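re the bet — no i am not wrong, look at it urself. input seq straight from the record:
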Amino acid sequence: MALAPPRTLTPSKASDFTSCPLAFRFATIERRPQPASPHAVKGTLVHAALEGLFWNHPAGGRTPEAASHELDRAWEALQLDPEFVELALEPDEAAEFLADAEQLVSNYFRLEDPDAVDTVGMELGVETMVDGMRLRGIIDRLDRAPDGSLIVVDYKTGRAPSERYERGSLGGVQTYALLCESVVGRAPAEVRLLHLREPIAISTVATEQTIRGQRRRAMAIWTAIERACDREDFRPHTGPLCAYCAFKPDCPAFAA
């Protein structure tokens, strides 16, 4: 019996499928439970602090001290988050967790001056139909440049990819350029990843050609997902990340 494909495609789902179709099946199609990820929870914390920095502080007041205050507020709210609770951190582990988040927020100020940023919106949920496929995502930040053009900004709390994988990392944010064009009515002039750990900014220009290419790529991935569901054929892709996969015990590639 064929499996039902997901109702929508997002940049994270597209990345999950291309990284490992079998893990995608377990997580997205079968919805098998996974343990909370400390990296994902920390990303949520840092995103909330930076969102608060822009929402609650007008230009001229977006200082490191203001960001620290927003991080404290986000940290307090996180204590009731089920995924954070599931981590069951010991006091020293929680202190280390928060200290690392503080460093990531501090690193943000080495990448740009938030007082010089003209933000149109943050955490924007966007959705559109692409050749019958429902494509959606959340734009971390949409800025307006001095010339009136738009800039899509995405925060990353993990390590920046090597030069070999840099193009792949920009693929997801190019999807947001496609969404921006479909929903807002015009394409952004630039898509930018702010990697907070190094820290380093990776950016590229969004053109009609790159957006058209991203549309084709999204449709190709969706077609592959539908085909895999129809055939119930999700083959594992093995690699270094398998060591951290919650589904490794169920993967035939590691069967005894």
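see?? The helical segments are 11-19, 21-29, 38-56, 64-78, 82-87, 91-108, 166-184, 208-231. told u. also The two ends are 28 Å apart (CA to CA). so pay up
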